[in-house]
Amino acid sequence: MNTLTLSRKFQAMNKPLLLLMLAFCVFGIYAIYSATWMRDAPFWTSQIRWLFICLPVYFVIAFNDYRWVRLGAIPIYAVSVFLLILVFFIGVKVFGARSWLNLGFGNFQPSQMAIFGGVLVFALFLSESSEMHSALRILICLGILAVPCVLILIQPYLGGTLVWLPVLFAMLYVGGVQVRYLVTLLLIGIAFMPVVVNFGLKPYQKDRILIFLDPSLDPKGAGWSINQSLNAIGSAGFWGKGFKAHNTLNELGYLPSTIVHTDFIYSVFGEQHGFLGALILIPSFALLLLAGLYIASQSRDQLGRLLAVGIVMLLFTHVFMNIGMTVAVTPITGLPLPLVSYGGSFLLITIACLGLLQSIWIHRKPIY
Length: 368
What we know:
Layout: H1 3-11, H2 15-36, H3 43-63, H4 69-90, E1 92-94, E2 97-102, E3 107-108, H5 110-127, H6 134-154, H7 158-162, H8 164-174, H9 179-200, H10 203-213, H11 224-234, H12 265-297, H13 302-326, H14 344-362
Antiparallel strand pairs: 1-2, 2-3
Helix pairs in contact: 2-3, 2-12, 3-14, 4-5, 4-6, 5-6, 5-8, 5-13, 5-14, 8-13, 11-12, 12-13, 13-14
């Protein structure tokens, strides 16, 4: 890639997408600091280090034609499955789940790489199988999904498996699978839900569902986290309690200190910045997602369109599930908030996804 082409690609970038991403990255560092400043835990400095690793990855992916996916999708998917298997042998156990690999300078979560690889493989397969029968296309995609999802579920990390389903449905729909087959698949899934809940979930995962249905159950046990999250957000009012405000539920230790900077970071934000903060943060995420959908609509081919839709649905699912679980709209799943929650591997995968979106935009037409 010569300097002239690189300059033109930079000029052709989707500037709103880039600026939104950078703004969320800066805000994420602020949010992590504001959630942990009283605990002498340098998570925010670690997030800065990860950000310096991730930003070059973003520009490398953005400036290279996204059609490298035709060659790279299967290797990335295969490596992610290998790493998921490796976790069972040398993985690090955190909060009861063996989901991490120790890289020396930090931990890496292969399940995050797996969903990224899954999006790439789904897009590659669906873009090249338009003549195949819809039922067969669904079965092959379910096979692609099954291997990593089973490995992730065994860890156990339920949230890491749930995110695959909406991503797959969105990509199947955009990929041209007939709606009646998608409806049939959905009805079959609903019919098997009681079996999955009763025989496929561990006791603490069942408790999370029961607490979601009735947060007043076991308020000092399984329901403690969600009830304190509701108290924190509900007590903030319109303006919030402010940054580094004293006697907040987070400062007093009522919010779960071990995951307040990851799973429950929106609870801290809601307590500090109130309803006004939500009016800014949630629409900002909506703008980011709408930018992704617009890029999908402008893609030069079906591969780019499928990749963009898969990435948007992946980000939407994380945003919806993370914020939803802090306000009792969804069960607690352990999914982080994109670009805001602490976590190097998730930050890396999120920025890689946004870099791929940027590449689809830049290469929607030839650049000489």
